[in-house]
Specification:
64 residues, mainly alpha, elongated
Length: 64
């Protein structure tokens, strides 16, 4: 059995941890994330508001 010789630089590049190559998000990526959070918050608020209106309408229907 022959073992393929690998250069040390190739070995270290292959086994290099990925977190060392991390780059901070760009301003555009940050803005996109902020917009996504805002939209999710608005959707959640609309859902809660709709459910509350339905609940109140059901209560009013029971009282009538």
């Amino acid at each position: 059995m022959k073992k393929n010789k690998e250069s040390s630089s190739a070995f270290f590049l292959r086994t290099r941890p990925k977190f060392l190559d991390w780059e901070p998000p760009t301003e555009a990526q940050r803005a996109q994330e902020v917009q996504a959070r805002r939209e999710a918050k608005e959707r959640e608020l609309a859902k809660v508001t709709r459910l509350e209106k339905e609940r109140r309408a059901a209560k009013q229907g029971q009282r009538s």
